[in-house]
Write a structure and sequence with these properties.
Blueprint: E1 7-8, E2 13-14, H1 35-45, H2 58-64, E3 69-74, E4 77-81, E5 86-90, E6 101-110, E7 113-120, E8 125-131, H3 139-155
Antiparallel strand pairs: 1-2, 3-4, 4-5, 5-6, 6-7, 7-8
């Protein structure tokens, strides 16, 4: 079936059903977009688009990025829900001795595809990861490790005396 996405549930790949019209999931935030469109979206979130015309004023976004309800707490981060976005306060050394850095993001899955975006609103850095596969084993640990790598290797400023990290572009 050309419209079926396999999933590894054991040692074999198994069909995961027919792709479907996402119309019913749009009410809960379902989003289908190309990488180019998502790149433009994170450019908007990170403040890299011209000031006008913005879909939302910057101060409105910043209010949406305030924690409303805590959803997870780990040694090195506190994750909360803002208004439409996850708000992550990340402590890079995990000991509470470094200043916490705030990141904004969102995740999503649908029919074998996973994606997440994170933005560092203080310096305008952003990451977009899109995967066309999923696994039922170790996904949460892989996601957690990848997110920490983004925060520590991509977003965190280099330590004193260190050379600046190279930057890459999705374009």
């Amino acid at each position: 079936d050309l419209h079926s996405f396999p999933t590894r549930r054991s040692s074999d790949l198994e069909p995961d059903g027919i792709d479907f019209d996402t119309g019913v999931t749009n009410a809960n935030g379902g989003l289908n977009a190309s990488i180019a469109d998502m790149t433009r979206y994170i450019e908007f979130l990170s403040g890299h688009l011209p000031q006008t015309p913005f879909p939302l004023p910057r101060d409105t976004l910043e209010r949406m990025w305030q924690p409303v309800a805590e959803v997870a707490r780990e040694t090195d981060l506190v994750e909360s829900m803002g208004y439409g976005y996850f708000v992550i306060d990340f402590d890079a050394d995990g000991a509470g001795t470094a200043p916490s850095q705030r990141y904004i993001g969102h995740t999503g899955t649908q029919m074998g595809f996973r994606s997440f975006i994170y933005v560092d609103p203080d310096n305008g850095a952003a990451a977009l990861i899109a995967l066309n596969t999923r696994t039922t084993e170790n996904y949460r640990q892989l996601y957690s490790d990848t997110r920490r790598d983004i925060f520590t290797m991509l977003f965190s400023p280099p330590s004193k005396g260190a050379k600046s990290r190279p930057t890459t572009s999705a374009r």
